[in-house]
């Protein structure tokens, strides 16, 4: 097993739970023109949701952004809930899975951890507006909140398996409970990313320092050799 144990680890072969309620998804249009129009609406909807928020976004705002009629919208989507689900279906893989494959176990575990954290944080920064939107939707939509919780749990379990593997190899502190350590460290990364990239602050934060801080805390917490 690779030693990639950051919050972006999704490479042990098991599919991750989706953020999308399948009941809200429709079949993709059969024609190329229909597929293009649907994609245009989805892209427009993402812009509107990120600009106005989920609660204040209006279908007329979406159709105006997409330069199409309301009737055209209803050809592809029933309501705001359906098009939001379509936005998530398109965005969730890039948003939460930066695309870094497994690295060989022979690699330096600290370097692997840093690379994985960097990929996750870069994806989070690119999608900061959408991440803020997910917080809003989770506060008002019970079904989405549960889907999000399940997805988060999948990451925690995968990181726990990664920590357990590092313990077997004599790299991580054997006295730690892998699951508890994963919950603590995974939660730290996601909330820290939210505070830096979504909430921001009075002073800009250097991205390299963000990566360094997160990785150093992971390594110190697990007591990597040379980081104790």
Properties at a glance:
9 helices, about 230 residues, mainly alpha, elongated, about 65% helix, single chain
Task: Describe what this molecule looks like in 3D.
This protein has helices at residues 32-52, 59-66, 70-76, 80-96, 109-126, 128-140, 142-168, 178-199, 207-222. The chain has 228 residues and is mostly helical. The longest helix has 27 residues, at 142-168. Mean pLDDT is 87; it is low at 1-11 and 97-103.
Estimate percent helicity: 55-70%
Q: Average pLDDT value?
A: 87
Model regions low in confidence, pLDDT < 50 over at least 5 residues: 1-11, 97-103
Count the DSSP helices: 9
Beta-strand portion reads: under 5%
- Report the sheet with the most strands, covering strand number, pairing sense and barrel closure: none
C-alpha end-to-end distance: 24 Å
The rounded Rg comes to 20 Å
Structural class: mainly alpha
The number of strands is 0
List the helices and strands and how they pair.
Elements: H1 32-52, H2 59-66, H3 70-76, H4 80-96, H5 109-126, H6 128-140, H7 142-168, H8 178-199, H9 207-222
Helix pairs in contact: 1-2, 1-4, 1-6, 5-8, 5-9, 6-7, 6-8, 7-8, 8-9
Structure at a glance:
With 228 residues, this protein is mainly α.
């Amino acid at each position: 097993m690779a030693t990639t144990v950051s919050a972006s680890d999704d490479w042990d072969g098991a599919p991750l739970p989706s953020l999308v309620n399948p009941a809200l998804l429709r079949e993709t249009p059969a024609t190329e023109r229909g597929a293009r129009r649907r994609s245009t609406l989805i892209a427009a909807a993402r812009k509107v949701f990120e600009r106005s928020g989920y609660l204040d976004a209006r279908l007329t705002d979406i159709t105006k952004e997409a330069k199409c009629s309301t009737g055209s919208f209803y050809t592809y989507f029933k309501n705001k809930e359906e098009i939001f689900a379509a936005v998530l279906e398109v965005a969730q893989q890039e948003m939460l899975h930066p695309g870094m494959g497994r690295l060989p176990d022979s690699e330096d575990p600290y370097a692997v951890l840093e690379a994985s954290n960097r990929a996750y944080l870069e994806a989070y920064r690119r999608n900061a507006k959408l991440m803020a939107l997910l917080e809003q939707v989770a506060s008002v939509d019970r079904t989405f909140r549960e889907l999000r919780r399940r997805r988060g749990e999948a990451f925690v379990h995968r990181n726990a398996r990664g920590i357990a593997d590092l313990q077997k190899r004599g790299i991580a502190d054997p006295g730690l409970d892998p699951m508890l350590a994963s919950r603590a460290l995974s939660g730290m990364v996601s909330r820290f990313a939210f505070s830096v990239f979504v909430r921001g602050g009075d002073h800009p934060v250097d991205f390299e320092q963000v990566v360094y801080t997160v990785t150093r805390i992971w390594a110190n917490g697990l007591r990597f050799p040379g980081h104790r």
